[in-house]
Amino acid sequence: MWLLALVLAYLIGSIPTAYVVGRYLYGFDIRRRGSGNVGATNTLRTMGTIPGLLVLGVDALKGVLAVLLGQALGGPVLVILAALMAIVGHNWSIFLEFQGGRGVATTAGALLAMAPLAVFWACLIWLAVVIFSRYISLGSIVAAAVAPFLVMYFHRPWPYVLFTFVAAALVIYRHRPNIKRLLAGTEHKLGERS
Known about the structure:
The chain has helices at residues 2-14, 17-26, 40-47, 49-73, 76-91, 104-114, 116-133, 136-153, 158-174, 176-184. By secondary structure, the chain is an all-alpha fold. It is globular. The N and C termini lie far apart (44 Å).
């Protein structure tokens, strides 16, 4: 049952929302536009606000569904494993030859189901960084870095804390190209369209 849950969580995470929206609503492959990333930020830049919000919402829902699946079929350990599998699926989708996004929205969705107050404060921190810097990627990196400490502060179970450390590390790891561009001063700012 656990194996089935983990495979299903991976497949849920693997649904390439940005690719589907780009291909079937706009007629192009998002991997060939903008940053090439299959996520909400690149959707925002290449397709506009409404598609960007749609992708953000569906990608977050993938994380929520993985947590609910883990809760239905097991305890906290299965919850965090299912959530991680959804993030892995989003980042390395079987439907896109193991390409994918950065995992921010799917991670946020999973955390929303585990520690909503921590997500609330992480989102405020993300928003503050984005407003002052105009870099979405920097906001995501900072929010990911502080999220584990917020989860600890709100006294969530230790498996959730462990999950948040691992998920945050994955988010930061997947942002390596953005970090290089930030350091080089070539990262796109909010409002710049590709």
